[in-house]
Amino acid sequence: MKFVDEASIHVRAGKGGDGSASFRREKYIQYGGPDGGDGGRGGSVLLQGDSGLNTLVDFRHRREYKAKNGEPGRGRQMAGKGADQIVIRVPLGTIVRDEESGELLGEVTRHGQEMVVARGGKGGLGNVHFKSSTNRAPRKFVPGEPGEERQLHLELKVLADVGLLGYPNAGKSTLISAVSAARPKVADYPFTTLHPNLGVVSIDVDHSFVIADIPGIIEGAAEGAGLGIQFLKHLQRTRLLLHLVELAPLDGKDPAEAVIELERELLNYDAALADKPRWLVFTKADLLAPEALDSTVQGVLETLQWKGEWAVISSVAQQGTEDLVQRIMRAVEQQSADHAEAEEIDERYATVLPETPPDPV
């Protein structure tokens, strides 16, 4: 299945119903006067965040969304019925732009969050609004306003606390299946993962984090090679990157050289992404004898002069995975606490500063 993280859809809101130019006609009432009602509002088109979705693949099959028009007004000052709105469900992390102008319309980041992308037209006024002492029988009415119409560009960036980064066959899918309830496809050939998979790692009732299995990156990905930059962008939303390093690669590539190549791809794509907190996670430890395992790991760390966090695991043998998720949980919670504290400091600082600087003396 091809992962679709960009889509183009056309949305059109409903037209407002026309006002009515009606007159009251009843037996024994000679001068009934105007009684035309207002038209109903046209239906709007909304996007709604759905945490159960993680791709834009549904928009490959349906690209047109059109809301119904409002009903016209009727006599006896009866207003026309407004049309129902159309709600389009999108995954969290969807960025919405006007395709023609490039204007950023908004971003859907919470479950249930709604964003109006095409507003329905207002209903027109009936002739009852135009009667006066000098115009007792107005025939004027106002037609309904047209609804908004847009071509939208949707772009999805996966929302996750932790992103798994690595070359194909580094063990990303195996790790996410070992520590969460997600069950991505696992095989021993490149590009087994063709779309990001999200898994919730639950430590206990009140402690959990979301981990994203990003498709494997190859050399030249920042320039579009392989699956290209369409997946590197998903790492921008994560708080922590786990750089998975295969200890015994099938192609015989040196693990340290693999780390350097992938770091180069991150830097070429986005320098800010390369600066994100990143841990080295050595995978498939069960394939090496203890002596070879220690020497290989230490050799990579020395070659890279690595000063950051690192871990050695085997997802298949459940070796080191429990300790790893506990450490990740502590790191994610610490980042959340630091972020909250920074926001609190910024808020306090903003209240101390005057709104406008004083004039220089």
SSE map:
Blueprint: E1 6-12, E2 45-50, E3 64-66, E4 86-91, E5 94-98, E6 104-108, E7 114-118, E8 149-156, E9 162-165, H1 172-179, E10 197-204, E11 207-213, H2 229-232, E12 240-246, H3 255-269, H4 271-274, E13 278-283, H5 290-304, E14 310-312, H6 321-352
Parallel strand pairs: 1-3, 2-4, 9-11, 9-12, 12-13, 13-14
Antiparallel strand pairs: 1-8, 2-7, 5-6, 5-8, 10-11
Helix pairs in contact: 3-5
- String of helices and strands: EEEEEEEEEHEEHEHHEHEH
Helices, by number, come to 6
Terminal Cα separation, in Å?
68 Å
Mean pLDDT across the residues is 80
State the helical fraction.
Answer: 10-25%
CATH T-level topology of the largest domain: Rossmann fold
Number of strands: 14
Count structural domains: 2
Helix/strand-derived category reads alpha/beta
CATH secondary-structure class of the largest domain = Alpha Beta
CATH architecture of the largest domain: 3-Layer(aba) Sandwich
Could you tell me the strand content as a percent range?
15-25%
| Main sheet overview | 6 strands, mixed
Q: CATH superfamily of the largest domain, please?
A: P-loop containing nucleotide triphosphate hydrolases
Care to describe what's here?
The chain contains 6 helices and 14 strands. With 361 residues, it is of the alpha/beta class. It has 2 domains: 6-156, GTP1/OBG domain (Spo0b-associated Gtp-binding Protein, Chain: A, Distorted Sandwich); 162-344, 3-Layer(aba) Sandwich (Rossmann fold), CATH 3.40.50.300. The strands form 3 sheets. Strands 10-11-9-12-13-14 form a 6-stranded mixed beta sheet, sandwiched between helices. A 5-stranded mixed beta sheet has the order 3-1-8-5-6, with no helix packed on it. β10 (197-204) and β11 (207-213) form a beta hairpin. α3 runs parallel beside α5 (290-304). The longest helix is centred in the C-terminal third of the chain and has 32 residues, at 321-352.
